[in-house]
Automatic annotation (TrEMBL):
It comes from Sporanaerobacter acetigenes DSM 13106. One of its GO terms (molecular function) is ATP hydrolysis activity. The lineage of its organism: Bacteria, Bacillati, Bacillota, Tissierellia, Tissierellales. This is ABC-2 type transport system ATP-binding protein. Gene3D superfamilies: P-loop containing nucleotide triphosphate hydrolases. The keyword Nucleotide-binding applies. InterPro entries: AAA+_ATPase (IPR003593), ABC_transporter-like_ATP-bd (IPR003439), ABC_transporter-like_CS (IPR017871), P-loop_NTPase (IPR027417).
Length: 312
């Protein structure tokens, strides 16, 4: 059985269907991306999975517990980093952690240990005496994450954690997510409308738009379903100009352009082979310095599946 099972979830607000029969499962230790444009239904789904909102139909099972029947057993396994920062503005970083930690039932020595650990992992140790209202938006986000991990949840849900924050905090949040997943095997659900973030972090994906499933499964599989095209970028010196003509006539090569000292190919994954390319380079005395392969981006996948750009 998977760690999280979302089965046929539907949500209506009056007559409006906001989630339409959504199903997926998440394995323990995964970094799972929930992606879609603004208004797609991501936060609604998160609110339902964490028991904050009731669904109109369907069920959620976490660690074998049915959310409707045993909500506390489900909630104690989850840490939630909500989209809106939820902190006490007029008290210090440390006091916020102490307060929220005690709500989780942490006391004395263990509470102190967990506060220190949360400050360390979110890079806020030197801000512990600062009042929250003096922190930057990115630091507030990091503190919100610190709050969410104090009870060592098995699952951490991060709802658009990088919206409107500075690049340094964004990187910090990224590295944090990878670290806690790697070192503690924490299962992460990461929602975002920034496809490149999800592309970098996640293994499995659920793409949602207007409350409906657009694609679900292994990231590589989704990409290969949508597009058989990859890019190959060849960094090569001292080759003769005629080489390009030979490369263009290779099986599986759809386009070949020279740009900024690099040769960029658009290739058909199923028919392109690297070996003939290397032979052509050798024939023309080219010195290969590097070869990079690029899959289609998730932006391209979304465009192919919905006919629209993510940020329309
Ligand atoms: N309380 C509510 N009453 C009526 N409609 C709502 C309510 N909450 C959300 N919706 C609608 O549900 C849809 C999905 O909203 P939701 O916030 O889940 O999207 P999202 O994917 O999280 O988008 P964003 O990235 O902008 O937060 C939207 O059309 C929104 O207007």
């Amino acid at each position: 059985m998977s760690l999280i099972e979302v089965k046929n979830i539907t949500k209506r607000f009056d007559e409006k269907i906001v989630l339409d029969n959504i199903s997926f499962s998440i394995e323990e230790g995964d970094i799972f991306g929930l992606i879609g444009p603004n208004g797609a239904g991501k936060s609604t789904l998160i609110n339902i999975m964490t028991g904050l909102w009731k669904c109109s139909g369907g069920e959620v099972v976490v660690g074998g517990y049915d959310l409707k029947k045993e909500p506390l057993k489900v909630k104690e396994q989850i840490g939630l980093v909500p989209q809106e920062v939820a902190l006490m503005d007029t008290v210090s970083v440390y006091d916020n952690l102490e307060f929220f930690g005690s709500l989780y039932g942490l006391k004395r020595k263990l509470l102190k240990e967990r506060i220190d650990e949360a400050l360390e992992i979110t890079g806020l140790m030197d801000k512990k005496k600062e009042k929250v209202k003096k922190l930057s938006g990115g630091m507030k986000r990091r503190l919100n994450i610190a709050v969410a991990i104090m009870h060592h949840p098995r699952i951490l849900i991060m709802d658009e954690p990088t919206v409107g924050i500075d690049p340094q905090s964004r990187n910090h949040i990224f590295e944090f997510a990878k670290k806690i997943n790697r070192e503690n095997n924490t299962t992460i659900i990461y929602t975002s409308h920034y496809m490149e973030e999800v592309d970098m972090l996640c293994n499995n994906l659920f793409i949602i738009d207007l409350g409906k499933e657009i694609a679900y499964g292994d990231k590589k599989h989704i990409k290969s379903m949508v597009s058989n095209n990859n890019r190959v970028i060849l960094n090569i010196d001292n080759y003769k100009g005629e080489m390009i003509l030979d490369v263009k006539s290779m099986d599986g090569v759809k386009e070949c352009n020279e740009e900024e000292g690099l040769i960029k190919l658009l290739v058909e994954q199923s028919t392109f082979r690297l070996e003939p390319l290397l032979k052509i380079a050798e024939k023309y005395n080219g010195e290969i310095k590097g070869i990079n392969f690029e899959e289609p981006s998730l932006e391209e996948v979304f465009l192919a599946l919905t006919g629209k750009k993510l940020r329309d």
